[in-house]
Design brief:
The chain is α/β, with parallel strands linked by helices. 62% of the residues lie in helices and 9% in strands. It has 23 helices and 12 strands. The protein has helices at residues 5-40, 44-69, 74-106, 114-143, 150-206, 233-261, 268-290, 297-321, 329-337, 355-388, 395-449, 453-467, 471-478, 523-534, 550-555, 572-580, 587-594, 605-612, 637-646, 660-669, 693-700, 703-709, 711-721, and strands spanning 488-492, 495-502, 505-510, 513-518, 540-544, 563-568, 598-602, 616-621, 647-656, 672-676, 681-685, 724-726. The strands form 2 sheets. It has an 8-stranded mixed β-sheet, with helices on both faces. A 4-stranded antiparallel β-sheet has the order 1-2-3-4, sandwiched between helices. It is globular, with a radius of gyration of 28 Å.
Length: 756
């Protein structure tokens, strides 16, 4: 074997096991975020602090791993990498008992305030994330043998890890979570981490016979063959930190656009990450092969940063500017008009699109909108290494510092965009601000390189910043182009809500998916009205989720009700209701908005039921589709146990239970159930329910209730009451959704034996 063949083979082996490490890391991120969100809810601030805590740990670990690598020989660095991966796998094995069994079930006091929750998330995530952050610097130290080959080696390792992460992001929702649940997914991730450790130990054994390399000091900057003046390392650190801020800001708005396009599917986040990471890996691999030929790394890197913003902002602008009749766009507009879009649900009874629609929404659209930008993100990484790597002995330390800076920028971008900018200026405003930031980058390139093409880049970005479509125009295009003059759009950190005109009022879509219509009527009205009519004295009512307000409005039909507490994540929805309330035909909405009994609490309803300790006569969750992201939190057997604890004696719930698993979970906990001529509309409670049809109808037909609901709704509800009958108890073997096994959310097939 030639001397050059051994390093190439070592790099190939390392790339394989680092791919497994990346896959495991993304499995952990998705699974742990679900577990931790049970303690602090799925509100935006909760998701933001969990993400920030996860990334902060990675940054700390990256810096620590880089510092450690500078004191190790290549072989010892590989051994250290193996120990890190084994420690990650070991933590993963105990993570479910720790995060779910201890922190969620037994440590409520640790989440008593936002500050306490932030600290708890950070401390609980720090051990595994810091270990994961150490991996790249240690592996770089073990594989980089000379300065000239450093950019290629580091780029291939980084690309392999990104490719593995893409596989993990894609497989977790579509396969692992769907068929194995959270525990099973984490076990698969742990197997990947352990396999990476074994691979590193085998590779370290191959290096055992090599002469140990003594670490030495690195020169201030690498020697470049081209004409470009070397830049101070600190400048590269600052540039890469800014790159991280831009990258995470874009990821947030990309997710918003794709989530609306895919109509709030549980599979959107993993699919977005997969496309993002595949593009990142592709750009990294291409640049790694060409790194030796790059003589002006600063100019190339700055072009990448400007191009990242230019490509994606232009693609989003063209999505709105181009005529809706154009091929492809005409289909997208038609798809946007649909209520639910691609149907993956086995119990779906609504319109369905074919396989092409799935490919168009989950592959073609994201590739067009942000594929080139993610490619440029990846391309910039080996270019950065080309400019900064100077000595193999300190290669890991430099990678660690750069990664730590980039991750710090990512944390800042996540918090700034996710918690502040989306609320303040919306998605369109974020695109404009990113264009403005990229203009500064382009001007920096012009000043440093004197390349006039940077002036063209700056001018293009400035024009996009000035003329990018307004918020309403962007979101209405993705909702099928309803008439702009009659439609209403609101956006906040929690999502996008649109009211589009229909012949008898408005239809409401939340994050692209049909929710309800105004003025009120049909299913949401039934869910709120039936428990209010059945309960003898419903003073305290809790509603989880506002939606159109229909459920909460109907639940307040009795004058005995003193307080209606509505838990809601989005501020956009009540703003929209307030705007439409004064329009003709919206008297019910106007009365609901003005109802002094209604108390709106901006928080995750499940979390507040647990944290507040208050008791209610009625608890109802506004009906959402079971395959919506995070819907399992209100359809699991553990949720119904929590509801049971929050009910007063004689308390009732009403559920739209569209799947056998939801019905079984409800029946298992709230033993006594009543159905109303349809198996998916269920009244339930922990105590026997007396079906008093005469009494319920008398309340329904009282002058107040008739005036409140309207005669048409009264007739519909009366027909339901006349069909009231006791439900069947679920057998012990009936399949149910669990917090750790969100089967319906991820469309797990239901076995014949599990149906009851």
């Amino acid at each position: 074997m030639s001397p050059a063949a051994s390093p190439r083979r070592d790099l190939a082996i390392a790339a394989v096991f680092f791919t497994l490490s990346g896959a495991g890391a993304l499995v952990y991120q998705i699974a742990w975020q679900r577990l931790l969100a049970l303690s602090t809810g799925v509100a935006v601030h909760s998701v933001a602090i969990i993400t920030a805590a996860f990334m902060a740990g990675l940054g700390i670990g990256s810096h620590a791993g880089g510092s450690l690598s500078a004191r190790l020989t290549p072989r010892r660095s590989l051994v250290a990498f193996a120990l890190v991966e084994l420690a990650v796998a070991a933590f993963a094995l105990v993570s479910v008992p720790f995060y779910y069994g201890v922190l969620y079930r037994e440590a409520d006091a640790l989440y008593s305030s936002l500050a306490a929750a932030t600290l708890t998330h950070f401390v609980s995530l720090l051990p595994p994330t810091a270990l994961m952050g150490m991996s790249l610097p240690l592996l770089v130290r073990g594989l980089v043998h000379d300065r000239a080959g450093a950019p290629r080696t580091i780029g291939i390792l980084y690309g392999a890890n990104a490719l593995g992460a893409a596989a993990g992001a894609l497989l977790t929702p579509w396969l692992l979570m769907r068929f194995l649940g959270i525990r099973g997914a984490i076990l698969v991730g742990a197997a990947g981490s352990a396999s990476a450790a074994v691979g590193a130990l085998l590779l370290a054994g191959r290096k055992a016979r090599q002469e140990p390399e003594a670490p030495g000091p690195a020169p201030d900057a690498p020697v470049l063959p081209g004409s470009e003046k070397p830049q101070p390392f600190g400048r590269w650190v600052a540039l890469y930190a800014f790159s991280g801020l831009v990258s995470l800001s874009l990821e947030i708005v990309w997710f918003r656009v794709l989530d609306v396009s895919a109509k709030a599917s549980a599979f959107t986040f993993g699919t977005l990450l997969a496309v993002y990471l595949v593009g990142l890996a592709a750009g990294t691999f291409v640049a790694a092969r060409r790194s030796a030929a790059i003589e002006r790394p600063l100019a190339v890197f700055l072009w990448c940063q400007g191009g990242i913003v230019l490509a994606t902002v232009l693609a989003h602008a063209l999505l709105v500017w181009l005529p809706a009749e154009w091929p492809g766009l005409a289909w997208l507009v038609s798809y946007g008009k649909s209520a639910y879009g691609v149907q993956l649900r086995p119990f779906a009874v609504t319109e369905a699109f074919g396989p092409w629609a799935f490919v168009a929404v989950y592959v073609v659209l994201p590739v067009v909108l942000f594929g080139p930008s993610t490619f440029l993100m990846g391309f910039g990484f080996p270019v950065l290494q080309r400019a900064t790597q100077a000595d193999p002995a300190t290669s890991g330390r430099r990678v660690g510092l750069l990664q730590a800076a980039n991750i710090a920028g990512c944390v800042a971008g996540s918090l700034l965009t996710g918690l502040v900018l989306i609320d303040a200026v919306g998605t369109s405003g974020v695109f404009r601000l990113l264009c403005a930031g990229a203009v500064i980058v382009a001007l920096l390139g012009l000043g440093v390189t004197r390349d006039r093409r940077f002036a063209v880049l700056a001018a293009s970005l400035l024009l996009l910043a000035l003329f990018f479509p307004r918020r309403e125009t962007l979101w209405l295009r993705l909702h099928g182009n309803p008439p702009a003059a009659e439609s209403l759009v609101e956006e906040d950190t929690a999502g996008v809500t649109v009211l589009a005109p229909r012949p008898d009022g408005y239809s409401m879509a939340i994050n692209g998916r049909y929710n309800s219509w105004l003025p009120y009527g049909w299913l949401h009205t039934y869910v709120g009205a039936l428990p209010a009519l059945a309960h003898p004295d419903p003073e305290e009512v809790a509603i989880l989720g506002l939606g159109s307000g229909d459920t909460a409005w109907a639940a307040g039909l009795r004058e005995e009700t003193k307080r209606l507490t509505v838990f809601e994540l989005a501020s956009s929805t009540p703003r929209l209701l307030a705007r439409v309330a004064d329009r003709p035909g919206m008297e019910r909405v106007r009365n609901f908005v003005a109802d002094r009994r209604v108390s709106l609490v901006y928080d995750d309803g499940r979390r507040r039921l647990r944290a507040d300790g208050r008791k209610y006569d009625i608890i109802v969750a506004d009906a959402i589709d079971y395959d919506t992201a995070m819907s399992n939190n209100i359809y699991s057997v553990e949720y119904y146990r929590q509801v049971k604890q929050a009910l007063k004696p004689g308390g009732l719930v009403c559920v739209v239970a569209k799947t056998p698993r939801i019905r079984a979970a409800l029946s298992r906990v709230l033993t006594y159930t009543v159905s109303f001529g349809r198996e998916d509309l269920i009244l339930a409670g922990p105590e026997p329910i007396h079906i008093d049809q005469a009494g319920w109808l008398a309340r329904l037909r009282s002058p107040r209730v008739v005036d409140y609901l309207g005669r048409g709704r009264v007739r519909e509800i009366a027909a339901l009451i006349q069909q009231a009958g006791y439900g069947r108890a679920a057998p012990p073997t009936a399949d149910v959704n669990g917090d750790l096994d969100p089967k319906d959310e991820f469309i797990r097939p239901l076995a014949e034996a599990a149906v009851w």
